[in-house]
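Lecture notes, part 5. Sequence design as translation. It can be helpful to think of inverse folding as translation between two languages: the language of shapes and the language of residues. The source text, in C-alpha coordinates, appears below.
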Protein backbone atom coordinates (compact mmCIF):
# COMPACT_ATOMS: atom_id res chain seq x y z
CA UNK A 1 0.00 0.00 0.00
CA UNK A 2 1.31 3.44 -0.91
CA UNK A 3 1.66 5.83 2.03
CA UNK A 4 1.60 9.55 1.29
CA UNK A 5 2.98 11.79 4.03
CA UNK A 6 3.54 15.19 2.43
CA UNK A 7 0.24 17.02 2.78
CA UNK A 8 2.26 20.19 3.33
CA UNK A 9 3.15 20.03 -0.39
CA UNK A 10 -0.27 19.14 -1.74
CA UNK A 11 -3.31 17.07 -0.79
CA UNK A 12 -5.48 14.54 -2.54
CA UNK A 13 -8.74 15.92 -3.91
CA UNK A 14 -11.52 15.07 -1.47
CA UNK A 15 -14.65 13.20 -2.56
CA UNK A 16 -16.77 16.18 -1.52
CA UNK A 17 -14.72 18.57 -3.67
CA UNK A 18 -14.83 16.22 -6.67
CA UNK A 19 -18.58 15.79 -6.39
CA UNK A 20 -19.10 19.55 -6.13
CA UNK A 21 -17.10 20.12 -9.32
CA UNK A 22 -18.88 17.63 -11.59
CA UNK A 23 -22.04 19.66 -12.43
CA UNK A 24 -19.92 22.52 -13.78
CA UNK A 25 -18.46 20.33 -16.52
CA UNK A 26 -21.67 19.30 -18.25
CA UNK A 27 -24.62 21.11 -16.63
CA UNK A 28 -23.70 24.57 -15.33
CA UNK A 29 -20.86 25.15 -17.78
CA UNK A 30 -21.77 28.71 -18.85
CA UNK A 31 -19.45 31.69 -18.68
CA UNK A 32 -20.44 33.71 -15.58
CA UNK A 33 -19.78 36.95 -17.47
CA UNK A 34 -22.42 36.31 -20.11
CA UNK A 35 -25.99 37.65 -19.92
CA UNK A 36 -28.01 34.64 -21.10
CA UNK A 37 -29.55 32.08 -18.75
CA UNK A 38 -26.77 29.47 -18.74
CA UNK A 39 -24.17 32.11 -17.94
CA UNK A 40 -26.29 33.75 -15.26
CA UNK A 41 -26.83 30.37 -13.59
CA UNK A 42 -23.07 29.99 -13.38
CA UNK A 43 -22.81 33.55 -12.03
CA UNK A 44 -25.32 32.76 -9.28
CA UNK A 45 -23.34 29.69 -8.23
CA UNK A 46 -20.13 31.74 -8.32
CA UNK A 47 -21.68 34.30 -5.98
CA UNK A 48 -22.83 31.51 -3.67
CA UNK A 49 -19.26 30.18 -3.49
CA UNK A 50 -17.88 33.67 -2.85
CA UNK A 51 -20.42 34.23 -0.08
CA UNK A 52 -19.71 30.90 1.60
CA UNK A 53 -15.94 31.41 1.54
CA UNK A 54 -16.37 34.88 3.03
CA UNK A 55 -18.42 33.35 5.87
CA UNK A 56 -15.87 30.59 6.47
CA UNK A 57 -13.01 33.06 7.03
CA UNK A 58 -15.06 35.67 8.86
CA UNK A 59 -15.05 38.29 6.08
CA UNK A 60 -17.63 41.07 6.27
CA UNK A 61 -18.53 41.15 2.57
CA UNK A 62 -18.36 38.56 -0.25
CA UNK A 63 -16.92 41.28 -2.48
CA UNK A 64 -13.77 41.10 -0.38
CA UNK A 65 -12.99 37.70 -1.96
CA UNK A 66 -11.06 37.75 -5.26
CA UNK A 67 -10.61 34.36 -6.95
CA UNK A 68 -7.09 33.64 -8.21
CA UNK A 69 -5.08 30.76 -9.68
CA UNK A 70 -3.64 29.97 -6.25
CA UNK A 71 -1.61 31.28 -3.34
CA UNK A 72 1.32 32.58 -5.37
CA UNK A 73 -0.86 34.85 -7.48
CA UNK A 74 -2.70 36.04 -4.38
CA UNK A 75 0.60 36.83 -2.64
CA UNK A 76 1.86 38.74 -5.67
CA UNK A 77 -1.30 40.81 -6.00
CA UNK A 78 -1.46 41.63 -2.28
CA UNK A 79 2.17 42.74 -2.03
CA UNK A 80 2.28 44.65 -5.31
CA UNK A 81 -1.00 46.38 -4.46
CA UNK A 82 0.32 47.49 -1.07
CA UNK A 83 3.55 48.70 -2.67
CA UNK A 84 1.71 50.72 -5.32
CA UNK A 85 -0.68 52.18 -2.73
CA UNK A 86 2.21 53.10 -0.46
CA UNK A 87 4.29 54.64 -3.23
CA UNK A 88 1.44 57.01 -4.06
CA UNK A 89 1.76 58.34 -0.51
CA UNK A 90 5.55 58.42 -0.53
CA UNK A 91 5.80 55.18 1.49
CA UNK A 92 8.22 52.67 -0.01
CA UNK A 93 9.21 50.52 2.98
CA UNK A 94 8.02 46.89 3.15
CA UNK A 95 8.38 44.50 6.09
CA UNK A 96 8.31 40.70 6.02
CA UNK A 97 10.26 37.76 7.47
CA UNK A 98 13.20 35.71 6.30
CA UNK A 99 11.30 32.42 6.09
CA UNK A 100 8.35 33.40 3.94
CA UNK A 101 7.30 31.39 0.90
CA UNK A 102 9.12 32.25 -2.33
CA UNK A 103 5.97 33.84 -3.71
CA UNK A 104 6.46 36.53 -1.07
CA UNK A 105 10.25 36.73 -0.96
CA UNK A 106 10.75 36.83 -4.72
CA UNK A 107 8.07 39.50 -5.11
CA UNK A 108 9.82 41.57 -2.46
CA UNK A 109 13.14 41.05 -4.25
CA UNK A 110 11.56 42.39 -7.45
CA UNK A 111 10.22 45.44 -5.62
CA UNK A 112 13.60 45.98 -3.98
CA UNK A 113 15.16 46.23 -7.43
CA UNK A 114 12.45 48.77 -8.32
CA UNK A 115 13.51 51.10 -5.52
CA UNK A 116 11.56 49.84 -2.51
CA UNK A 117 13.30 49.21 0.80
CA UNK A 118 12.65 45.78 2.27
CA UNK A 119 13.19 44.71 5.88
CA UNK A 120 13.20 40.95 6.50
CA UNK A 121 12.77 40.13 10.17
CA UNK A 122 14.70 37.34 11.88
CA UNK A 123 12.89 34.25 13.07
CA UNK A 124 13.82 33.14 16.58
CA UNK A 125 14.96 29.69 17.60
CA UNK A 126 11.39 28.62 18.28
CA UNK A 127 10.43 29.43 14.70
CA UNK A 128 8.24 32.38 15.72
CA UNK A 129 8.39 36.04 14.76
CA UNK A 130 8.33 38.41 17.73
CA UNK A 131 5.62 41.08 17.77
CA UNK A 132 8.10 43.52 19.33
CA UNK A 133 10.45 43.00 16.37
CA UNK A 134 7.64 43.96 14.01
CA UNK A 135 6.88 47.03 16.13
CA UNK A 136 10.52 48.10 16.09
CA UNK A 137 10.71 47.72 12.29
CA UNK A 138 7.60 49.79 11.45
CA UNK A 139 8.42 53.32 10.27
CA UNK A 140 6.46 56.32 9.09
CA UNK A 141 7.07 55.24 5.48
CA UNK A 142 6.11 51.57 5.96
CA UNK A 143 3.59 50.53 3.31
CA UNK A 144 3.05 46.88 4.28
CA UNK A 145 3.74 44.19 6.86
CA UNK A 146 3.50 40.64 5.50
CA UNK A 147 3.90 37.66 7.86
CA UNK A 148 2.90 34.12 6.95
CA UNK A 149 0.26 32.47 9.14
CA UNK A 150 1.88 29.00 9.30
CA UNK A 151 5.33 28.24 7.99
CA UNK A 152 5.40 25.79 5.10
CA UNK A 153 8.63 24.11 6.23
CA UNK A 154 8.70 23.91 10.02
CA UNK A 155 4.98 24.31 10.72
CA UNK A 156 5.13 27.06 13.33
CA UNK A 157 2.11 29.34 13.79
CA UNK A 158 2.80 33.05 14.02
CA UNK A 159 1.07 35.52 16.41
CA UNK A 160 -1.12 36.80 13.59
CA UNK A 161 -3.81 38.42 15.72
CA UNK A 162 -1.26 40.37 17.79
CA UNK A 163 0.69 41.48 14.71
CA UNK A 164 -2.56 42.47 13.00
CA UNK A 165 -3.61 44.53 16.03
CA UNK A 166 -0.24 46.28 16.05
CA UNK A 167 -0.47 47.11 12.34
CA UNK A 168 -4.04 48.34 12.70
CA UNK A 169 -2.95 50.61 15.57
CA UNK A 170 -0.01 51.96 13.54
CA UNK A 171 -2.06 52.41 10.36
CA UNK A 172 -0.04 49.91 8.30
CA UNK A 173 -1.77 47.37 5.99
CA UNK A 174 -1.22 43.79 7.15
CA UNK A 175 -1.05 40.79 4.80
CA UNK A 176 -0.68 37.14 5.75
CA UNK A 177 0.09 34.17 3.52
CA UNK A 178 -2.35 31.68 5.07
CA UNK A 179 -1.90 28.94 2.48
CA UNK A 180 -0.70 26.41 5.07
CA UNK A 181 -3.21 27.50 7.74
CA UNK A 182 -6.62 27.78 6.08
CA UNK A 183 -8.67 24.65 6.75
CA UNK A 184 -6.31 23.45 9.48
CA UNK A 185 -6.57 26.11 12.18
CA UNK A 186 -9.35 28.62 12.91
CA UNK A 187 -9.05 31.80 10.81
CA UNK A 188 -11.21 34.91 11.22
CA UNK A 189 -9.95 37.88 9.26
CA UNK A 190 -11.95 40.44 11.23
CA UNK A 191 -11.07 39.18 14.68
CA UNK A 192 -7.42 38.78 13.68
CA UNK A 193 -7.12 42.29 12.18
CA UNK A 194 -6.08 40.93 8.78
CA UNK A 195 -6.27 43.32 5.83
CA UNK A 196 -5.22 40.87 3.10
CA UNK A 197 -4.98 37.08 3.14
CA UNK A 198 -3.80 34.54 0.55
CA UNK A 199 -5.23 31.04 0.16
CA UNK A 200 -4.68 28.02 -2.09
CA UNK A 201 -7.24 25.21 -2.39
CA UNK A 202 -4.90 22.28 -2.90
CA UNK A 203 -3.59 22.55 0.68
CA UNK A 204 -6.93 21.43 2.16
CA UNK A 205 -8.01 18.73 -0.31
CA UNK A 206 -9.33 21.12 -2.93
CA UNK A 207 -8.29 21.21 -6.59
CA UNK A 208 -4.98 22.66 -7.77
CA UNK A 209 -4.76 25.87 -9.72
CA UNK A 210 -7.31 27.84 -7.73
CA UNK A 211 -7.22 30.02 -4.64
CA UNK A 212 -8.36 33.42 -3.46
CA UNK A 213 -7.18 36.72 -2.10
CA UNK A 214 -9.12 38.32 0.72
CA UNK A 215 -8.77 42.11 0.62
CA UNK A 216 -10.62 44.17 3.20
CA UNK A 217 -12.98 46.80 1.80
CA UNK A 218 -11.03 50.01 1.29
CA UNK A 219 -7.81 48.26 0.20
CA UNK A 220 -7.27 49.17 -3.49
CA UNK A 221 -5.97 46.25 -5.55
CA UNK A 222 -3.53 46.55 -8.45
CA UNK A 223 -4.18 44.20 -11.35
CA UNK A 224 -1.59 41.49 -11.90
CA UNK A 225 -3.53 39.97 -14.80
CA UNK A 226 -5.19 42.42 -17.17
CA UNK A 227 -8.21 41.39 -19.18
CA UNK A 228 -11.96 41.55 -18.81
CA UNK A 229 -14.11 42.85 -16.00
CA UNK A 230 -14.10 39.64 -13.98
CA UNK A 231 -13.61 39.88 -10.20
CA UNK A 232 -14.85 43.48 -10.22
CA UNK A 233 -12.16 44.33 -12.76
CA UNK A 234 -9.32 43.29 -10.45
CA UNK A 235 -8.41 39.95 -12.02
CA UNK A 236 -8.91 39.34 -15.73
CA UNK A 237 -9.81 35.91 -17.07
CA UNK A 238 -12.93 33.74 -17.11
CA UNK A 239 -13.51 32.31 -13.63
CA UNK A 240 -12.71 28.64 -13.18
CA UNK A 241 -16.13 27.73 -11.82
CA UNK A 242 -15.54 23.95 -11.41
CA UNK A 243 -12.36 24.56 -9.39
CA UNK A 244 -13.96 27.36 -7.34
CA UNK A 245 -16.88 25.05 -6.48
CA UNK A 246 -14.43 22.31 -5.48
CA UNK A 247 -12.43 24.74 -3.35
CA UNK A 248 -15.56 25.93 -1.56
CA UNK A 249 -16.70 22.39 -0.79
CA UNK A 250 -13.25 21.36 0.42
CA UNK A 251 -12.95 24.42 2.66
CA UNK A 252 -16.40 23.84 4.13
CA UNK A 253 -15.52 20.20 4.85
CA UNK A 254 -12.15 21.15 6.38
CA UNK A 255 -13.68 23.77 8.67
CA UNK A 256 -16.60 21.56 9.71
CA UNK A 257 -14.31 18.63 10.57
CA UNK A 258 -11.36 20.56 11.98
CA UNK A 259 -11.80 19.31 15.56
CA UNK A 260 -12.40 15.75 14.37
CA UNK A 261 -9.20 15.87 12.29
CA UNK A 262 -7.23 17.02 15.32
CA UNK A 263 -8.51 14.01 17.28
CA UNK A 264 -7.44 11.66 14.48
CA UNK A 265 -3.96 13.14 14.46
CA UNK A 266 -3.79 12.81 18.24
CA UNK A 267 -4.62 9.08 17.99
CA UNK A 268 -1.90 8.66 15.35
CA UNK A 269 0.57 10.40 17.65
CA UNK A 270 -0.32 8.12 20.59
CA UNK A 271 0.02 5.03 18.39
CA UNK A 272 3.46 6.17 17.26
CA UNK A 273 4.43 6.89 20.85
CA UNK A 274 3.80 3.25 21.77
CA UNK A 275 5.76 1.84 18.83
CA UNK A 276 8.52 4.41 18.64
CA UNK A 277 11.96 3.19 19.70
CA UNK A 278 13.19 5.31 22.60
CA UNK A 279 16.87 5.10 21.74
CA UNK A 280 16.13 6.02 18.12
CA UNK A 281 14.31 9.14 19.27
CA UNK A 282 17.14 10.10 21.62
CA UNK A 283 19.85 9.73 18.99
CA UNK A 284 17.74 11.24 16.22
CA UNK A 285 17.16 14.42 18.18
CA UNK A 286 20.57 14.82 19.80
CA UNK A 287 21.85 16.37 16.60
CA UNK A 288 19.01 18.89 16.74
CA UNK A 289 19.42 19.70 20.43
CA UNK A 290 23.21 19.97 20.19
CA UNK A 291 22.89 22.02 16.98
CA UNK A 292 25.34 19.86 15.02
CA UNK A 293 26.46 16.25 14.80
CA UNK A 294 30.02 17.12 15.81
CA UNK A 295 28.78 18.18 19.25
CA UNK A 296 26.32 15.32 19.34
CA UNK A 297 29.03 12.68 18.96
CA UNK A 298 30.29 13.19 22.50
CA UNK A 299 26.78 13.04 23.87
CA UNK A 300 26.10 9.77 22.08
CA UNK A 301 28.94 8.09 23.95
CA UNK A 302 27.29 8.88 27.28
CA UNK A 303 24.70 6.59 28.81
CA UNK A 304 21.26 8.02 28.12
CA UNK A 305 18.79 7.89 30.99
CA UNK A 306 15.43 6.32 30.25
CA UNK A 307 13.56 9.46 31.33
CA UNK A 308 15.62 11.48 28.88
CA UNK A 309 14.72 9.02 26.14
CA UNK A 310 11.03 9.34 26.97
CA UNK A 311 11.31 13.12 26.93
CA UNK A 312 13.05 13.07 23.56
CA UNK A 313 10.52 10.61 22.17
CA UNK A 314 7.65 12.91 23.10
CA UNK A 315 9.46 15.78 21.40
CA UNK A 316 10.09 13.66 18.30
CA UNK A 317 6.47 12.55 18.01
CA UNK A 318 5.40 16.14 18.60
CA UNK A 319 7.52 17.17 15.63
CA UNK A 320 5.83 14.54 13.47
CA UNK A 321 2.42 15.59 14.78
CA UNK A 322 2.96 19.13 13.61
CA UNK A 323 4.21 17.86 10.25
CA UNK A 324 7.72 19.29 10.51
CA UNK A 325 9.49 17.68 7.53
CA UNK A 326 12.83 19.33 8.00
CA UNK A 327 15.64 19.06 10.51
CA UNK A 328 16.61 22.38 12.07
CA UNK A 329 20.23 23.25 11.71
CA UNK A 330 22.16 26.49 11.92
CA UNK A 331 24.27 28.49 9.48
CA UNK A 332 27.00 30.08 11.56
CA UNK A 333 25.41 32.28 14.19
CA UNK A 334 22.28 32.85 12.14
CA UNK A 335 19.24 30.95 13.33
CA UNK A 336 18.08 29.64 9.97
CA UNK A 337 16.07 26.53 9.19
CA UNK A 338 17.71 24.50 6.42
CA UNK A 339 15.88 22.05 4.20
CA UNK A 340 17.87 18.84 4.71
CA UNK A 341 15.35 16.55 3.01
CA UNK A 342 16.91 13.10 2.52
CA UNK A 343 20.33 14.20 3.70
CA UNK A 344 19.22 14.06 7.32
CA UNK A 345 18.38 10.36 7.35
CA UNK A 346 21.75 9.05 5.99
CA UNK A 347 23.60 11.25 8.48
CA UNK A 348 21.40 10.11 11.36
CA UNK A 349 21.62 6.43 10.47
CA UNK A 350 25.37 6.61 10.01
CA UNK A 351 25.78 7.88 13.55
CA UNK A 352 23.33 5.31 14.94
CA UNK A 353 25.00 2.36 13.26
CA UNK A 354 28.44 3.54 14.31
CA UNK A 355 29.74 2.91 10.80
CA UNK A 356 31.02 6.44 10.49
CA UNK A 357 31.87 9.25 12.83
CA UNK A 358 29.50 12.16 13.31
CA UNK A 359 31.76 14.39 11.23
CA UNK A 360 31.86 11.88 8.38
CA UNK A 361 28.10 11.52 8.49
CA UNK A 362 27.65 15.26 8.36
CA UNK A 363 30.04 15.43 5.41
CA UNK A 364 27.99 12.79 3.60
CA UNK A 365 24.85 14.79 4.22
CA UNK A 366 26.46 17.93 2.85
CA UNK A 367 27.44 16.07 -0.32
CA UNK A 368 23.83 15.03 -0.80
CA UNK A 369 22.89 18.68 -0.48
CA UNK A 370 25.10 19.78 -3.38
CA UNK A 371 22.99 21.82 -5.79
CA UNK A 372 20.22 21.98 -3.17
CA UNK A 373 18.17 24.99 -4.25
CA UNK A 374 16.62 25.45 -0.81
CA UNK A 375 20.03 25.66 0.85
CA UNK A 376 21.11 28.12 -1.84
CA UNK A 377 18.15 30.33 -1.02
CA UNK A 378 19.03 30.33 2.68
CA UNK A 379 22.50 31.63 1.85
CA UNK A 380 20.94 34.12 -0.59
CA UNK A 381 18.75 35.58 2.17
CA UNK A 382 21.70 35.69 4.56
CA UNK A 383 23.61 37.62 1.92
CA UNK A 384 20.82 40.18 1.66
CA UNK A 385 20.63 40.41 5.43
CA UNK A 386 24.35 41.20 5.57
CA UNK A 387 23.91 43.70 2.76
CA UNK A 388 21.29 45.59 4.74
CA UNK A 389 23.92 46.02 7.46
CA UNK A 390 26.46 47.07 4.81
CA UNK A 391 28.57 44.06 5.71
CA UNK A 392 29.75 43.44 2.16
CA UNK A 393 32.34 40.81 3.03
CA UNK A 394 29.76 38.57 4.71
CA UNK A 395 27.37 39.19 1.82
CA UNK A 396 30.06 38.09 -0.67
CA UNK A 397 30.76 34.90 1.27
CA UNK A 398 27.10 33.90 1.47
CA UNK A 399 26.46 34.60 -2.21
CA UNK A 400 29.41 32.39 -3.14
CA UNK A 401 28.02 29.64 -0.92
CA UNK A 402 24.62 30.05 -2.58
CA UNK A 403 26.13 29.73 -6.05
CA UNK A 404 28.14 26.68 -4.98
CA UNK A 405 24.90 25.02 -3.81
CA UNK A 406 23.03 25.79 -7.03
CA UNK A 407 25.53 26.45 -9.80
CA UNK A 408 22.83 26.45 -12.50
CA UNK A 409 20.84 29.34 -11.01
CA UNK A 410 21.55 32.23 -13.34
CA UNK A 411 19.75 34.70 -11.07
CA UNK A 412 22.30 34.08 -8.31
CA UNK A 413 25.16 35.13 -10.55
CA UNK A 414 23.26 38.24 -11.62
CA UNK A 415 22.46 39.20 -8.03
CA UNK A 416 26.06 38.62 -6.94
CA UNK A 417 27.31 40.92 -9.69
CA UNK A 418 24.79 43.57 -8.58
CA UNK A 419 26.15 43.36 -5.03
CA UNK A 420 29.71 43.64 -6.33
CA UNK A 421 28.76 46.74 -8.32
CA UNK A 422 27.14 48.25 -5.25
CA UNK A 423 30.26 47.58 -3.17
CA UNK A 424 32.46 49.17 -5.82
CA UNK A 425 30.21 52.22 -5.89
CA UNK A 426 29.83 52.64 -2.12
CA UNK A 427 33.29 51.56 -0.97
CA UNK A 428 35.30 52.27 -4.08
CA UNK A 429 36.74 48.76 -3.74
CA UNK A 430 38.20 46.63 -6.52
CA UNK A 431 36.16 43.46 -6.99
CA UNK A 432 37.97 42.14 -10.06
CA UNK A 433 39.02 38.93 -8.27
CA UNK A 434 35.46 38.08 -7.36
CA UNK A 435 34.26 38.85 -10.87
CA UNK A 436 36.94 36.47 -12.12
CA UNK A 437 35.58 33.85 -9.71
CA UNK A 438 32.13 34.27 -11.29
CA UNK A 439 33.56 33.86 -14.79
CA UNK A 440 35.40 30.70 -13.77
CA UNK A 441 32.29 29.30 -12.13
CA UNK A 442 30.29 29.89 -15.30
CA UNK A 443 32.95 28.10 -17.33
CA UNK A 444 32.80 25.22 -14.88
CA UNK A 445 29.05 24.96 -15.46
CA UNK A 446 29.51 24.84 -19.23
CA UNK A 447 31.93 21.93 -18.91
CA UNK A 448 29.60 19.84 -16.77
CA UNK A 449 27.29 17.20 -18.12
CA UNK A 450 23.82 18.36 -19.08
CA UNK A 451 22.28 15.50 -17.09
CA UNK A 452 22.33 17.47 -13.85
CA UNK A 453 20.71 20.44 -15.56
CA UNK A 454 17.97 18.11 -16.75
CA UNK A 455 17.40 16.80 -13.23
CA UNK A 456 17.13 20.37 -12.01
CA UNK A 457 14.25 21.07 -14.39
CA UNK A 458 16.60 22.13 -17.16
CA UNK A 459 18.08 25.13 -15.39
CA UNK A 460 19.66 27.60 -17.83
CA UNK A 461 23.28 26.94 -18.75
CA UNK A 462 25.43 30.03 -18.20
Amino acid sequence: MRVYADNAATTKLSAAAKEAMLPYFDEIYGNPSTLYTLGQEAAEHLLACRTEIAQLIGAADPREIVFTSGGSEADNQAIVSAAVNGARKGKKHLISTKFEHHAVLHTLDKLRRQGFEVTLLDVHEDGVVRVEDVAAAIRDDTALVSVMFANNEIGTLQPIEAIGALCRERGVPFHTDAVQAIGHVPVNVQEMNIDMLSCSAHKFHGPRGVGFLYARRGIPLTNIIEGGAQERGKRGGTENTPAIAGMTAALREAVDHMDEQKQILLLIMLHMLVDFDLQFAAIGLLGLLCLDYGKAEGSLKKKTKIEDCIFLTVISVGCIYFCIPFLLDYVGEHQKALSFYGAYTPAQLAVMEGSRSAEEATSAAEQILTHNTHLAEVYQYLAYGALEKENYEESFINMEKAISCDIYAKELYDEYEEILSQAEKVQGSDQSERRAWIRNKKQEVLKKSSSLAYELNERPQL
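The translated text above is only one of many valid answers, since several sequences can fold into similar shapes. Confidence is low (pLDDT under 50) at residues 273-310, 320-358, 364-371, 449-462.
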